[in-house]
Design goal:
- The complex is a heterodimer.
- By secondary structure, chain A is of the alpha+beta class.
- Chain A has three domains: 196 residues, Aldehyde oxidase/xanthine dehydrogenase, a/b hammerhead (Aldehyde Oxidoreductase, domain 3); 224 residues, Aldehyde oxidase/xanthine dehydrogenase, molybdopterin binding domain (Aldehyde Oxidoreductase, domain 4); 146 residues, Aldehyde Oxidoreductase, domain 4 (2-Layer Sandwich).
- Chain A is built from 20 helices and 28 strands.
- Chain A has a seven-stranded mixed β-sheet, with helices on both faces.
- In chain A, helix 10 runs parallel beside helix 19, helix 15 runs parallel beside helix 16 and helix 18 crosses helix 19.
- Chain A is globular.
- By secondary structure, chain B is an alpha+beta fold.
- Chain B folds into three domains: 46 residues, Uridine Diphospho-n-acetylenolpyruvylglucosamine Reductase, domain 2, CATH 3.30.43.10; 111 residues, 2-Layer Sandwich (Uridine Diphospho-n-acetylenolpyruvylglucosamine Reductase, domain 3), CATH 3.30.465; 96 residues, Enolase-like, domain 1, CATH 3.30.390.
- Helix content of chain B is 33%, strand content 23%.
- Chain B has a five-stranded antiparallel β-sheet with strand order 4-5-8-6-7. A four-stranded antiparallel β-sheet of chain B has the order 9-10-11-12, with helices on both faces. A three-stranded parallel β-sheet of chain B has the order 1-3-2, covered by helices on one side.
- The radius of gyration of chain B is 18 Å and the shape is globular.
- The chains are: A alpha+beta, B alpha+beta.
- Chains A and B meet through helix 4 and helix 20 of A and helix 11 of B.
- Chain A: One of its GO terms (molecular function) is oxidoreductase activity.
């Protein structure tokens, strides 16, 4: 692997600027003549916008303009789109309620923008916003899915009767019913998957700059996928044509999915910059982040699992209500369908599965993909079911899982996914050994003697990553392909620039992607630069989400590298008067195998650009590109086991140990992988113990600041014990599965399984706050 | 934040004088409440008078059986002060679980009690220890100082200069942290005076702010031990209820935290 190659724990190149405060985020950028936008947002969950009076604001110092939703309509700016078409079981398309970037007539969640003030400074814009008088007529609102589907409930969209987005099914209902009819045991469970606010460290921001002479727009934005942003902004919103729009996502400070989507604010900034003839900047504050960044999860599910007399699973029935909030965000429709129900087989042989998912509008912030996106909901459901089943069937939870593991690959599940490889016993074994599962009973007894309730919880997760084969997702309704592109530019002096459509928002691409180059050429990573996040530099790309940047993005780089190396070998062979087949690349040199003849890589590069002595007919230069479309999803999997104690006096949970045994395929940089797992586990624990985005019955957010929304802190989580059990992914040449979401997918169930084991009661919703645990312990 | 005029007072008299000249001034101590509220535009004082650099408001003195903490002393300075640790270690412990390091470096005892947040830690210590609040005009017993949510006996423009604590025979504080804010979801301070009296105060629990807990005081006076509280029943009536804790849960916490505070006090 070399000191900087694949598998090396290379310190992150990008951290020098991040930890010395030299990162360059959107808010750090200042343009000449720049104005500042402040959005006027609805304080009501549901209301008619009767009148907006901006006359007083327009007279205030430094105010450039006050723009409203009606002006968007007048300028024929398009409504926000949802990019994945889902078809209901009756064959009808999903019901899309119109979502204008600023509401001209009706607001449907607290925080929805109705107007924007553009002024010379942020404070002046804010002052003027207070002088804009918006006359609302309040309407009844509904925040809860069950309330929203009741007859007589307040209706959000005329396009969606009964507030229903879709009623979608997957699997074989007849075969599933037959399995339940013959079942020896049936296990039933109701679970709620709590709504979460993403809370990236960097709030969303945008700067739009319209050049009237060139009729050209530049948009700096906090995006995980700047090319997708450009595509959507140009193709659907009638603001800027694609060839006249440059989207730049500089350093991005976290996203967890929330920065995939195209939001009203960047649309309005683009449109407004042309209207006012000056650059327009908007930086959200934390309150705006709570109110407008797409939330995650929010499922209410009833599930039943059928077992035969040998404790083998024979069938699974699931009915889920998914709360989408007030509007369908960019990829929201796919999250509780193709990213959720297709993973309901978990790690288990389940011959028959049937799932129904009912999408529901409510007067809340839109919900979309959040770290794991559908897969945490599936994994949590299945792993809570397995634990419940073990308790009901009175068998060891680990043993019950082992009885039902898939052990032959490839394995076609009844819900679309074909698992390519894995070794679920290996990760379960590794985790059980790491936590001394066999010794738990003695430790539990010891804890009991000290007045503590000790529990252990297992979670065996699987996810589908490396999103995704374009043809497959296209057949399921996706509006885009999910390949990735790369370009390798070798400079005349032999330094290398890798252009990629992946875009780091904290993952460390500037290090890991260089490690591939170092691995193949034997050059130091200091000789390699990663270029990303700018649509003028990188031709196209699909961005970073779904743990796809290594499995798909890095593979695209590999394909481009192979093309570049092939040409470079021809040049080297020509220079060394050898056969191309005899050229090998070692330690930055092209060598004739079995001889001491060699030419350094920079000399090959120089030869390509001087073009004085190239093979006949060869074009000058050394630059190659590739598009890579994966053949399948990848399937990271693993086992998490959590041991904890509950204080019966307070209901407070304290971790004793948390072990993770993951199979991510090949690791490029184990240090970065560990960081990803740590972060994911903390988010999973956060969901299990602390985090909950709550609305009252009238749609007012209760948790719109860190005073009420509990984010995990360092002392809320244990020191993790990580290990890897590796099976290489056969679907890509590097054998990579992906690691970005696993922790968030698998951790929650381990925690809740452990707490319920500790307190001896199975029903406990997330977040398991001390109050909730205490009340559960002491409930009659 | 709206426009405001910032003044850095060099003495208590100057601060009082500045206050008198202003139409709508606020005193600034550590700024842990006032500044966030101003940033959110929920407060818009015409003038902000900073007390933080006034020398006479800084420091800790131990004199006989009285520990005096000047009003603008930060939590960090209290937490690390040798006299505090020696005379009333429960106060040093209370400051160590108050907020986070950033809050402890800025926040002050005077700011905390003047604000009288119903979930703040220090009001419980003052009330349980029977402290005296010294101002630029008078001395106020803790029992008379706290007047309900965010309300105190302070008059307009009155400046807290110090808090004097009688050194107790035993004292302890235990707190269930609010999972988001790290204020007290419920915290209980127990103290046994050198004359044998017992005072117990709970914060974060009552809808009326910090409160004495007479039932626990009576039980502990009879028998200073955690088990003495086993059969005490705390009513949930009048207690706070929110997404982080029901009133019943807080009632339970009053009892459990009191037991643990007694155990910590020894």
């Amino acid at each position: 692997m070399g000191v900087e190659g694949i598998g090396a724990r290379v310190v992150r190149k990008e951290d020098k600027r991040f930890i010395t405060g030299k990162g360059r985020y959107v808010d750090d950028i200042k343009l000449v003549g720049m104005t500042h936008a402040h959005f006027i947002r609805s304080p009501h969950a549901h209301a008619k916008v009767k009148k907006i009076d901006s006359s007083a604001a327009l007279k205030m110092p430094g105010v450039v303009a006050v723009l409203t939703g009606q002006q968007l309509v007048d300028d024929k700016v398009g409504n926000l789109i949802c990019g994945w078409a889902i078809t209901s079981k009756d064959g009808s398309p999903m019901k899309m309620g119109a979502w204008p970037a600023m509401a001209p007539e009706t607001v449907r969640f607290v925080g929805q923008a109705v107007a924007v003030v553009i002024a010379d400074s942020k404070n002046l814009a804010r002052d003027a916003a207070e002088a804009v008088v918006v006359d609302y007529e309040e309407l009844p609102a509904v925040a809860d899915v069950h309330a929203a589907i009741k007859s007589g409930a307040p209706q959000l969209h005329p396009e969606a009767p009964g507030n229903q987005v879709y009623d979608w099914v997957i699997g074989d209902e007849g075969a599933t019913d037959a399995a339940f009819a013959k079942a020896a045991n049936v296990v039933k469970l109701d679970v709620t998957n709590n709504r979460l606010a993403p809370n990236a460290m960097e709030p969303r921001a945008a700067i739009a700059d319209y050049d009237a002479a060139e009729e050209h727009f530049t948009l700096y934005t906090t995006s995980q996928n700047p090319h997708v942003a450009r595509l959507v902004l140009s193709a659907f919103y009638n603001i800027a044509p694609e060839h006249k729009l440059r989207v730049i996502a500089p350093d991005v400070g976290g996203g967890f999915g929330s920065k995939i989507f195209i939001y009203p604010e960047e649309m309005v900034a683009l449109w407004a910059s042309k209207k006012v003839g000056r650059p327009v900047k908007w930086t959200g504050d934390r309150t705006e982040a709570f109110l407008t960044d797409a939330h995650g999860r929010d499922h209410v599910t009833h599930a039943e699992m059928a077992f035969d007399a040998n404790n083998k699973i024979t069938g699974l029935k699931v009915k889920t209500y998914a709360n989408f909030g007030a509007y369908m965000s960019l990829f929201s429709s796919s999250v509780p369908t193709y990213l959720y129900a297709t993973l309901l087989s978990g790690q288990y042989n389940i011959p028959a599965i049937h799932a129904e998912v009912i999408g529901v509008y409510t007067n809340t912030t839109p919900v979309d993909a959040y770290r794991g996106a559908g897969r945490p909901e599936a994994s949590y459901l299945i792993e809570r079911l397995m634990e419940t089943a073990a308790r009901q069937l009175k068998v060891d939870p680990a043993a019950l899982r082992r009885t039902n593991f898939i052990t032959q690959f490839p394995h076609q599940t009844p819900v679309i996914m074909a698992y390519d490889t894995g070794d679920f016993n290996a990760s379960l074994d590794a985790a059980m050994k790491a936590i001394d599962y066999a010794g738990f009973a003695a430790r539990k007894a010891q804890a009991k003697s000290q007045g503590k309730l000790r529990g252990i919880g297992v979670s065996c997760y699987i996810e589908a990553c490396g999103i995704a084969p374009s043809k497959a997702v296209g057949s399921l309704g996706a509006g885009v392909g999910l390949w990735e592109s790369a370009e390798v530019r070798v400079n005349p002096v032999g330094t290398i620039e890798i252009l990629t459509g992946s875009h780091s928002h904290g993952q460390g691409h500037e290090t890991t992607f260089c490690q591939l180059v170092a691995d193949r050429l034997g050059v130091p990573i200091s000789q390699v630069s990663i270029v990303h996040g700018d649509t003028d530099k990188v031709q196209f790309g699909m961005g970073t989400y779904g743990s796809r940047s290594a499995a798909v993005g890095l593979t695209a780089i590999l394909k481009a590298m192979e093309k570049m190396e092939s040409k470079a070998k021809k040049i080297a062979a020509h220079a060394l008067e050898a056969s191309e087949a005899d050229i090998v690349i070692e330690n930055g040199e092209f060598k004739v195998t079995g001889t001491d003849k060699a030419i350094a890589f920079p000399m090959v590069a120089l030869a390509a650009y001087t073009a004085h002595n190239l093979p006949d007919g060869m074009e000058p230069g050394l630059k190659e590109s590739a598009f890579y479309d994966p053949s399948n999803f990848t399937f990271p999997a693993g086992t998490y086991i959590c041991e904890l104690e509950v204080d019966p006096g307070t209901g407070k949970t304290s971790f004793v140990n948390f072990v993770a045994a993951d199979d991510f395929g090949r690791l490029i940089n184990p240090m970065i992988v560990e960081g990803q797992v740590h972060g994911g586990l903390v988010q999973g624990i956060g969901q299990a113990l602390l985090e909950h985005a709550i609305y009252d019955a009238n749609g007012q957010p209760v948790t719109a600041s860190f005073m009420d929304y509990a984010m995990p802190r360092a002392d809320d989580v244990p020191s993790f014990n990580l290990s890897h059990t590796t099976t290489l992914c056969p679907g890509n040449p590097l054998g990579i599965k992906g690691c970005g979401e696993a922790g968030a997918i698998g951790a929650s169930a381990a925690v809740i399984n452990a707490i319920t084991d500790a307190i001896g009661k199975n029903n406990l919703e997330m977040p398991a706050t001390p109050d909730r645990v205490w009340r559960t312990i002491h409930a009659a | 934040m709206y426009q405001t005029t910032y003044h850095r007072a060099s003495s208590v008299d100057e601060a009082a004088s500045l206050f008198g000249k202003s139409s709508d001034a606020k005193f600034l101590a550590g700024g842990q409440t006032l500044l966030p509220v101003m940033k959110q535009r929920l407060a818009s004082p015409s003038d902000v008078i900073d007390l933080g650099k006034i020398k006479e408001l800084q420091g800790v003195e131990l004199s006989g059986d009285t520990l005096t903490i000047k009003a603008a002393t930060t939590y960090y300075d209290i937490m690390t002060n040798a006299d505090v640790k020696k005379a009333i270690p429960a106060i040093a412990y209370l400051t160590s679980v108050l907020g986070d390091p950033a809050v402890r470096y800025r926040g002050t005892i005077g700011g905390s009690i003047a604000n009288n947040d119903p979930a703040a830690d220090f009001p419980a210590a003052l009330l349980a220890l029977g402290a005296t609040v010294k101002t630029n005009k008078r001395s106020i017993a803790a029992d008379d100082f706290f007047k309900g949510l965010f309300t105190t006996a302070l008059e307009d423009g009155e400046i807290i200069t110090a808090v004097s604590f009688p050194v107790p025979a035993k004292a302890g504080y235990e707190k269930m942290r609010h999972p988001a804010s790290r204020f007290a979801l419920t915290g209980v301070f127990v103290a046994q005076t050198k004359s044998g009296d017992v005072r117990v105060a709970a914060t974060g629990a009552s809808q009326s702010g910090v409160m004495r807990v007479p039932a626990i005081e009576a039980a502990l006076k009879a028998n200073w031990s955690p088990s003495a509280i086993d059969n005490v029943s705390i009513s949930a009536s009048g207690l706070l209820a929110d997404i982080h804790g029901t009133a019943e849960y807080r009632a339970n916490l009053v009892k459990v935290m009191a037991q643990r505070a007694v155990a910590a006090a020894g």
